[in-house]
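Final report, Chapter 2: Outcomes

The project's central promise was a pipeline that accepts a single protein chain and returns its three-dimensional structure in a standardized token representation, suitable for archiving and comparison. That pipeline is now operational. To close this chapter, we reproduce one record exactly as it appears in the project archive, with the input sequence first and the structure output second.
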Amino acid sequence: MRILLDENLDWRLERDLPGHSVESVPRIGWAGITNGELIRRAEGRFEVLITMDTGLRHQLNITQRNVAVIVLRARSNRLADTRPLMTRVLALLETITSGTIETV
């Protein structure tokens, strides 16, 4: 699966997503763009966006979009706090569908 890590996450999380093609927002030059623009650009290039932006659910209606979003809920965006969630993220990647937002 093609996964995009938002700029609020440590790019090293890609190591915890084996078998998937993972990029990060800063690495592809998309840092600082709005959430709407991020979703628009991600469509067709990525299947899933992983973020810690809990407001995304209320800012955008992605039901008609060709991308899914996983929102991580952790104490902070530090790798030590987000890495333990990756087991649940991997399981969710097996069933998540475009146009949905899931929280882990």
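Archive annotation: The chain has a mean pLDDT of 95.
This record, like all others produced under the grant, will remain available to the consortium after the project formally closes.
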